[in-house]
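Hi X.,

You mentioned you wanted examples for the new student's onboarding notes, showing what a folding record looks like when two proteins sit in one file. Here is a clean example. The first protein comes first, with its sequence line followed by its structure tokens.
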Amino acid sequence: MSATTSPAAPVTPDAVTFSLTEEQRLLRSTVRELLTARAGSERVREVMLEHGGFDEPLWSELAQLGLTGLLVPERYGGVGSTFVEASIVLEELGRRLAPVAYLSSAVLGTVAVVRGGSDDQQARILPDVATGAARLALAHLDTAGRLDAPPGIRAARDGDDWVLDGEAGYVIDGQHATHLVVAADTGTGIELFVVAADADGLAREPVEVLDLTRPMATVTAAGMRIGDDARLSAGEPVAALHAALTAATVAIACEQVGGIQHTLEAATAYARERVQFGRAIGSFQAVKHQLADMLVATESARSTAEHAARVLARGDYDELAIAAPLAKSYCSQVYTQAAGDAIQIYGGIGFTWEHDAHLYFKRAKSTRLLLGDPRHQRALVGDALGL
């Protein structure tokens, strides 16, 4: 399937429901089949330990299916799907902890350029993003990762050019990006710039992270001079940045649902097979209750994430201000609890490096903090409700 052929037909806002269409079910099965074959546990471990947490062959296969350009408009070589289709892909990636730059490039970077770039800039940037030839990463934090602070990189006018200085921290997939969308503090506001990751005056250093399947980097600009054409010039940059971060918040929740579902399925399978005192441990009441609680929480998490994805797809931004942080908060809590409970069910083996439980536990812990922990997200819900 080419990058310009839709694996799932776009859904009009009025048609968005909680039921998947036949095309969306096909999309799910296609992605799941690919990841089952290409992103097994052994491959994920190999990539995170030997390839810096980025599986380039898998990224190429996702691109060949058109999945890297799902949110890229058709006129720029993408699929032009809604976030419903993207949420399906994200959930399947989360089930496998697939080490690819989907969140950073296909969501964060793409939404920032679509919302902030002019027609000419989108035509210049997005076609390569859609084919996977270019990978975007968003640099918007300071090195402390504070959500309420100005960006760590500053921008100053110098004639017709801009000069960038400073450091941005915790840039998701920053080491593997070909281009960076940089949020820079001008002193009077924020501007967004798209720059080549290997440009003069720009340096990237990997950050030590808990979750080795999702690498991060510190990006440093030292007297980096760029032309004004690098500045995303359509619309309001703060609104474009907010749109990208909101989409990523929903994306993380959808990804978490995939991890939660896998955790539940794997723990249930183990409880059926593991025999203790002459009986499968799944027959013990305490284990039954634990798994039943996990199932109820999993379905609730799925509902909040799917609701947020559909609200985003139909552009209901008032509702999205509530749905997005609510989904991220709840899914973060459920994932952390489920990953910890699964380790208890596995017993001693669940604490070992050889078992995959720690990979999901680390993903749960890291995504809980990414773009704001549950407490921060609940505060956003309160603000949206005027509480």
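Then the second protein repeats the pattern, sequence line and then tokens:
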Amino acid sequence: MRRLIRERGQGLVEYGLILLLIALVVLVALTVFGRSVSVLYSRIVSGWP
């Protein structure tokens, strides 16, 4: 029984680490490309009639 609980805890930790890695990748991508995406969005919106 204790082994099953430890394995569940390990699985939750692994999912947490994966979510943390995804969040870091998104944060870095927004930091690097944020300004250019904002400029592109502004150009698209200003070009609409």
